[in-house]
Amino acid sequence: MADDAFTAEQALLKVTPTGPADKPWEQYIGGGLVDTSKYKKAGPHKLCFSNASVSNPWRVVGWKVMQAEADAEKSSIASLQYSDAKDSDDKQISDIKAFINGGQCDALIVSPTTSDALTPVVEEACKSMPVVVFDRSVNTTCPVTSISSIGGNAWGIAGARYIAENLPKGGKVLLLRTAPGVDLFETRSDAAMRIFKEAGITPVGSEFTGGDNAKTKAVVSDYLSRFGQIDAVWVDLGAMSVAVAEAFEDAGQPYPIITGEDQEDYLQKWKNTGFKGVAPTYPAYQWRTALQAAVKILDGKQVPGPKWVLPQPVITNENLDQYVNLKMPPLHYALCGCEDLPGYPERFGGKR
């Protein structure tokens, strides 16, 4: 199964998406369109959103994106009820049951905490209203559509391939990982290791840092003292990339290749210092897609499904300039798809 997903996502990275070129959140890769005429009802619509959490910067930006999209579509949306599960399966199950029993939802949007635990309650919700799932999936086909970008394999492939293509012969690679046993991170690192193996690269180490900047710097410093030189650092989460660069600065060492993500602090560091970098992305614009999908379904318009695969761009030296935005805060995600939404940039912490 993992092999199938790796091969499929590797192929999808090369596919040209369908949809408006300037609106990637409306694009889709492969798949077909779902007839939603049976869900059509007069608006404005009452939407309900069960969120896993806002426990990291990506989710904070995403929730702001969804709220801004709701403001942009206020003529079609009567209300957007919200619940935050705080990363608890039990709380999210309870939240969704409350939405079902409350009878105030024309459609339900779910960003699940975990796939297995949320599947039964999502199936229950599907019996009384159209459901849109995004970010993580559930193990049922009952949602009208399940939205995400290409996936963790594609993310891991992009960074590792760049290292494989740019590493000096015999160069030393260090992998920095966030936490063990988390599907997303395991998928990213497994894909990266597969690329390294194919390229004949054996990393000198793989360490967990918990995404903590101080621990990241300590680990990098330790490896520099042990090996004298590190030529590339692959990360499974871009939040630690700036700390990696700072560790090399502290050691008086030249920058290695450093992979990252579309978080502004990394993009700006990469631009300012000129190290070799690449940023796989997990676009926050999918939060916009999810809300748009719910409105379209209730309007009886077709949507991509049952799986809606969004494009997952890779930021490279060639296109870096279009994503660096000095007016946005360090923890902002460049692929928010939010630049044309009400309140931008201030509601996202930016300045004009």
UniProtKB/TrEMBL annotation:
GO terms for cellular component: cell envelope. CDD domains: PBP1_ABC_sugar_binding-like. Pfam families: Peripla_BP_4 (PF13407). GO terms for molecular function: carbohydrate binding. Residues 49-302 form the Periplasmic binding protein domain. Belongs to the bacterial solute-binding protein 2 family. This is Substrate-binding domain-containing protein. It comes from Rhizobium lusitanum. The lineage of its organism: Bacteria, Pseudomonadati, Pseudomonadota, Alphaproteobacteria, Hyphomicrobiales.
